[in-house]
Amino acid sequence: MESLVGRTLQNGKYFIEEELGHGGFGITYKAIELNNQNEPVVIKTLKKGAAHHLHRDKLRKEFLEEARRLVKCEHSNIVRYRYFFEENNQPFIVMDYIPGSTLDEIVLPDKPLSEDVAVEYIKQVAEALKVVHRNDLLHRDVKPQNLILHAETGKVILIDFGISRRFSQGKTQTHTNLISEGYAPLEQYLPKSKRTTATDVYGLAAPLYTLVTARIPIAPTLRDRIPLDHPRDLQPHLSQGVSDAIMAGMAIEARDRPATVNKWLKLLSNPSRTRNLALAGGTPGRSDRRPTRTQDRSNLSLTAKEEDLDSFSSPNRLPNITKSLLFASLFGFGIAYALEMKLLSFGKPPIQETIEPDSSLKNLNSQKSQKKLEAERTTRKLEKEVLQDRQKTQARKEAEENAADREDASIAVETEQILDKNQETAKATAEYQKNLQWEQEKADIVKKQQKILQQKLPQTIYPGRTIRQKENMTRTEGGYRPARGEDGEEED
């Protein structure tokens, strides 16, 4: 891949200083604007391989769409778009340069942020996403690598709108096969699914998970085999409310997540509401599964016991003791009555009753088993489709890279052949010019000799003879003399 480092663009307006990074088809450079006091900027363009891609026109169109999307989304926490231009049939986007570090550079591998700082950063990103959603767009790639902490203002800036897409709430649309492992929700792994703002809600919760734990979350396609650890299990000092809000936003199914950014922010700021949602089954728990009825009963029993203890230790404990004594008395009378009835029936043959199992209970168990089997079959089918899609994507990507490499190699060979031909042509031209110069010099020498000869010719003729009589004279070593006739006499 040919680098642009050290080159100028737009007739010397921008000078490329260094490469900042590259993705699937794009590459980003740091540059300076020479006409504006060497102000640093960021210039993004397509890779050389993408420029020769079979679908180059489509890539160029999507690249232009990214510029248009940036123009629409103006916010202090979104990178500012400046300029768009083309040079040598190559598109370029000029954006603000954000001095600072990305959040993944700050946190990883083992430097988690405090809860207050991490929540404040994510709230800033949430405000930026609200602007994105108001323009009917989804960012779809919110991750710590795309969040820069401004070194001067302390704000978190959202960058890279490369795979953002327009969405229609609730409608099934085709997804781009570009995902960030650990930060992309399950619907982005599927070729077609409903696009909703819940996708970016996952994009808020997953980075917050990394900021407070310094760990990359488990991808949703693997969480049926590798459960996602609850943030509070990794960092016990975290509040239960923030930990539950993270898990609510990272629910595997989009329908189980808060539908909008505002609803998720309410969970983040209202711990009790988040806990109630978790107990109700709307949010994955510590093992990434909804709580069962048994778990609910145990939780309720525990709550009841705590209330009893609280009431016993309160100033109003005497009425509670009275109620307990009354209950014990009634229980004693019940036992006495049962013993009396047992004695009256002593000696009588026992009545055998056949207890038939409840048919409704059987049907319920059968339905549960059937639903479980259907869920397992659906899960296996989904995993198979996801695996096939990933394999196809990988194969297509490798084929595109191989095609680009072959095309680059072919271009290199053709360029080398052209250079060789140019060298041969230049060599032949030089040789021709040399021969031409030599011929010219030779002609000049002949002309000079003829001129000298003409200047000396009249002096060698005998006095009294004309130039015309030169034809009857014979050239000797000393000059010309009259020709002799047949009888040896000189001719007049």
Describe, in short, the structure shown.
By secondary structure, this protein is an alpha+beta fold. The chain has twelve helices and 15 strands.
Provide the descriptors you would attach to this structure in a database record.
alpha+beta, Phosphorylase Kinase, domain 1, Transferase(Phosphotransferase), domain 1, 3-stranded antiparallel β-sheet, 49% helix
Determine the structural class based on helices, strands and strand pairing: alpha+beta
- CA radius of gyration is 46 Å
Give the CA-based shape: elongated
Strand order of the largest sheet: 1-2-3-4-6-5
Q: How much helical structure, as a percent, in the residues? A: 40-55%
Mean residue pLDDT: 75
Q: For this structure, what is the CATH class of the largest domain?
A: Mainly Alpha
Number of helices, where a helix is a run of at least 4 consecutive DSSP H or I residues = 12
H/E series, N to C?
Answer: EEEEHHEEEHHEEEEEEHHHHHHHHEE
Number of domains: 3
Could you characterize what this model shows?
By secondary structure, this protein is an alpha+beta fold. It has three domains: 8-96, Phosphorylase Kinase, domain 1; 100-296, Orthogonal Bundle (Transferase(Phosphotransferase), domain 1); 412-473. 49% of the residues lie in helices and 14% in strands. The chain contains twelve helices and 15 strands. The protein has helices spanning 48-51, 56-72, 103-107, 115-134, 198-213, 231-234, 240-249, 261-269, 271-280, 293-312, 317-344, 359-456, and strands at residues 8-9, 14-22, 26-33, 39-46, 81-87, 90-96, 100-102, 137-138, 147-150, 156-158, 165-166, 172-174, 192-194, 473-476, 479-482. It has a six-stranded antiparallel sheet. A three-stranded antiparallel sheet has the order 7-9-10. Strands 8-11 form a two-stranded antiparallel sheet. Helix 4 packs antiparallel against helix 5 and helix 7 (240-249) crosses helix 9. It is elongated. It starts with 7 loop residues before the first strand and ends in a 10-residue tail after the last strand.
